[in-house]
Amino acid sequence: MSKIATLEIDGKKYEFPIIEGTENELGIDIKTLRGATGGITTLDPGYKNTGSCESAITFLDGEKGILRYRGYSIEELAEKGDFLEVAYLLIFGELPTAAQLEKFDKDIKEESHVEEDMKKILDGFPKSAHPMGVLSSLTSALIAFNPDSVDVESEEEMYDAIVKIMAKFPVLAAWAMRKRKSLPLDYGDSSLGYVENLHKMMFAKPNKAYEANKIVNDALDKLLILHADHEQNCSTSTVRIVGSSHAGLFASLSAGISALWGPLHGGANQAVIEMLEAIKEDGGDTARYIDKAKDKNDPFRLMGFGHRVYKNFDPRAKIIKKSADEVLGDLGIEDPVLDIAKGLSEVALQDEYFVKRKLYPNVDFYSGIIYRALGIPTEMFTVMFALGRLPGWIAQWREMRLRKEPIGRPRQIYTGETHREFKPVSER
Ligand code: SDX
Fold first, then answer.
1. Tens digit of pLDDT for each residue in 121-155?
2. Distance separating alpha carbons of residues 16 and 28, to the nearest angstrom
3. Dist. CA 229–CA 57, nearest whole Å
4. What is the pLDDT of residue 151?
5. Mean pLDDT, to the nearest integer, of 62-74?
6. Do residues 4 and 13 lie in contact, with contact meaning Cβ atoms separated by under 8 Å?
7. Which of 305, 310, 353 is the pocket-test mutation for ligand 1 (most atoms within 8 Å of CB)?
8. Given the CA of residue 229, which atom of ligand 1 is nearest to it?
9. Does residue 357 register a pLDDT over 90?
10. Is residue 203 within 8 Å of 375, Cβ to Cβ?
């Protein structure tokens, strides 16, 4: 395979190097395009054909349904790992030794307090505020209480900011949920593991001792691992581009949370359950909803289906679907929407419209069914996605900053008015 791409414009040829990644992905390096051609750029709305960076964190193959974090398969990590060690792997590149994991856990626990004045900001929100909006705001507000986490240039300064946000983010997420339920704000218990402590902060009742449920916490741990990173998706690209201006980590994460909130991205897990509930209310008529999804005149989309990269089964969806059966079985829960989801999936996967467009269930299609079984309110589903994606966002931000990548600033093709003279209002 030639390592050179040749572009011919008006009879003139331009050559660009083709770079090859460790998984044999090929990319045309067009860093010199504008200079060499006197200003010609590419145009690629949604960046469907454009690589924004080289990265060593996550590899996915959409055709084969492969997902690996730092070379480890998602199947093995979900089966054998726990969320905190996977977070360490994503951020620092290697699975931690026992000593490294113990230090990471200890450093996080040291930072797991949240300033009392943050509660005044939380109190300013109406109970009806969506938890993703609250979480994005509180994450940004953390900057005011942790100013030394903004200008982080050295790895040591970055490490301090990383353990701070790994520690405080679950507290803020739990607070966002408890605010809606008018429950006292829990600070958690440093004697518990990371995920168990998150569950306690979310669900502990003020008038009775918290009882951990291993099935629930194991399922939660697995879901967080499955959501931990996914290369240059919309919210991760947002975190990287905000961080590229040298805005701090917390500010970059706050922007990423807002990007994840959208129903075409992380907000889909909430939209899937709302869709399944609507189908159930509508008598379970899945065929009608399949037809609506196929109708170009109908804005309805089959939420939880389709993916920019996966043109095969999302490997995470396979694991979550299996886990949904196990968790609901272990907890003795019968949830009719799980059957509706399975029915919908079976019909869609045989329908020419979906087959031709390679639309398969994605990570969001089944996750809400498990969250629901774990007692998590629907409006908190995307917050759970954010809790899982936190280490991935951090890892990608850290990689971009350590590599001293340039500020992100895409070009455009202008299609507006050409120059015209100003006219006073009396002449318009
Ligand atoms: C996540 O990028 C990531 O990695 C994201 C994520 C992560 O871990 O970070 O994996 C998490 O965001 C998963 C995706 C969650 N979103 C949804 O489930 C929302 C429903 N899905 C779609 O809106 C859509 O599939 C996207 C947004 C996910 C992908 O859209 P693309 O790649 O821009 O594809 P497209 O919109 O151009 O669709 C191609 C065709 C179109 O039809 P035609 O114009 O070719 O006739 O497929 C159709 C679309 O209309 N289509 C759908 C559909 N998804 C695509 N038709 C009906 N239902 C759908 N869900």
1. 999 999 999 999 999 999 999 999 999 998 888 99
2. 7
3. 8
4. 87
5. 96
6. no
7. 305
8. 8
9. yes
10. yes
